[in-house]
Amino acid sequence: MTADATAQPLPDVTADVWLSIPPDEIEGLPQGPNYLFWDGGEDGTQPYPGDPADCVLYVVPYMKRRAVAGNPLASMRNLRVVQTLTAGVDDITARLSVVAPGVQLCNARGVHEASTAELALTLTLASLRGVPDFVRAQQQERWAGDFRPALADKTVLIVGYGAIGAAIEDRLVPFEVARVARVARSERTTARGPVHSFTELPSLLPQADVVILSTPLTEQTKGLVNADFLAHMKNGALLVNVARGGVVDTKALLAELDNGRITAALDVTDPEPLPPGHPLWHAPGVLISPHVGGPTSAFLPRAKRLLVDQLGRFVNRQPLRNVVLTTGETDDA
What is the pTM of this model? Predict the structure, then answer.
C-alpha cells in the first residue's frame, strides 16, 4: 500500500519512541512519548535504551548493517510505526516478518532528494568530462589534456521518476540538455512532460546518451538492467546508477564495459560493499563511489524535520507521511 494511512492510537503501555538521532538534538519534538536514543553503536552492540516491548515507533538507525537495524524488531511487540531514514526500504522490509500485523513502514521521502540528485549530476559530469583521468594524471604529474563530451545537447533518460528522479531533472535543466525522457512503473503526465512505463524502455534506450537509474529496488526492478537492457543502449552511452546495486545485473554490465561499448558511473553495486579483487573495480570506463548519495551535510536537517513532522502526526492521530506498506496487508500496488 502506497497511500498515506491513519496512525493507530498509542497502546496502553509506556509510549517509548526509539530515535536514531539524539532527541536533545532535535528541536520541536512533540510532548507525550518517552524519547530514547539508539543507533546500534559503532560495532552494533550498543545496549537497548529500554524494553523493546514498550517501543511504539522505531526510527531505524541510518547506515548501519541490516542485522543491527533489524535486531530489536522481534521484541517490539507493541510497535505501530517503523520509520526509515532512507528512501529505499528493501533492507528493512526483509526483517518485517517478525512484527505484528498493522505496523506501518514509512520511508524518508524528502530527505535524500537534494544529496542524491547532486551526486547523480556529479557522477555524470565527472564521467563525461574525464575527471578520473585528470586525477590519475595529477598523481603522476602529467599535463594530459583531452577532448571530452559535454552534458550539453545530450539526451538523458531517467529510469525511476519519483521524488529523486524529479530532483535530478531539476538539476539537469541548467545544463542545456537536448531532452529528458522519464520512465517509471506507471505511465503518467507531469508538468514537465510524459512519464513512460517500463514497457517503453526498448524504444527509449537507443536514443539516450546518458541513462540515470533512480528507481527503488523491488521485485519488478531487480535485475532490470540486464543484458537485453544494456544491448538496447546506444554505443558510447553512459549508465549512472544512484538507485540500488541489485537493479543492475553486474555480470551483464561487466561484459559491456569490457568490450568498451558503454561506460558507467556507479554509486551502488551488487555485491555491496564491492569486495577487493572484484573485476568491477578495474573494468574500463567505470567510475565507482561507495554509496554516498545520501550521507552529506544536507541529510541531518532534513531528517530532523521529517521526524518532527511524523511524530507530531503520530501523537495527534493524524495520517502519517510516506507510508510504503502496512504489515499483514497484501496490497503493494
Answer: 0.85
